[in-house]
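Feature request disguised as a bug report, sorry. It would help if multi-protein outputs had a clear separator. Right now it looks like this:
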Amino acid sequence: MEQFSIGRVLSRAFGLIRDTIGSVGVFVLLIVIVQSGVSLVAQLLFVDDFRLDTAAPRLEAIQAIFATTWYWLVVIISLVAFGLSYGGGLYGLIRQAERGTTSLQECLQAGFSRMLPVIGLTILWWLGVALGWLLFLIPALILMSMWAVALPALVAERCGVFEAFGRSRALTRGLRLSVFGVLFITLLIYYAVVIVLVGALLGSTAFDLAALGQATVLSTVLSIPAAWISGMLFKAILTSLYVETRLVKEGLGTDGLTEVFE
């Protein structure tokens, strides 16, 4: 049996990003652009609600925002975009790992077919981790590591939501410290690349506009690179973790992944 390798997980993830720029990369970028555009339009339509009246209680002003139809429309669209992005993106990346090729059409088809289960699993994932944070830090970290490959398992193996949680628990058993190490390194990469680099190059303008309550085309465009980079990074890491845990626990390389698509 192979031993879990953090270096191999990271190397595989970045290789998948490089090899799927023209398929998964385009798919994720299209969703980011559409989602950003919808958010821009919605903010412009209720921009007055964002400019809080200093004479009014802050809590009431915030509640007024939550009460608007446009706010909840953005929330729903964001959930749909997330389901499409992760359903199709993970599928495309796993296909790339399995057979060395994928396509934009496959990502689109998989995104629509797996969207609802992905949303359901993600909501339950966040509720579980949030409860862990409320109880104590350690339970949340354990759950994050235990459920790290639930989404890839759901997408690749077409299992149910609760079955995917169980599948992730089985695949990560005995490997959770290493899985946590990968997640921690991923967060460091995210903050180093997305927050520091993109923020330094582009973010100041966007942050200044946001502080003024101005949703503009410029501020929206400046947010797209960070959203795309983070989306591709996390999807590729989750895919690579799924492949690695199957390799270690079941002795299956990328050839063995073919079975889950049959």
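(second protein starts here, but nothing in the output says so)
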Amino acid sequence: KIIFQLTTSDTLAHKALMKQLANITKVKPDSKIEVVCHGPGLEILQKSKSVVIPKITEFNSKGINFYACEFSMTERKVSKNEITEDAKYVSAGIIYIVTKQQEGWSYIKSGF
């Protein structure tokens, strides 16, 4: 069980995350994986800004959940219409991550 935190708008980091997810699912296909995107990291889920929407759709179909932080969305004035349909939502990304860690999930900060 792995929870990734993405807080960067860097598209190279977004592509690197997709590669990491591919590697993990290839080596350990039964892994449970979630990705929480907040702050500038929301851009990976924004239809108009993301360079990896097809990969998100692909991973979502394999059971990997991507979450947009509603607190960050409000702060950045991003509506749910702007977010890919493959995303789910959490009210506060940091709290969600901490809760998952308390439940025994491993934490990875995504980026460089």
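Even a blank line would do. Unrelated, but nice: The beta strands are 2-6, 33-37, 65-69, 87-90, 106-110.
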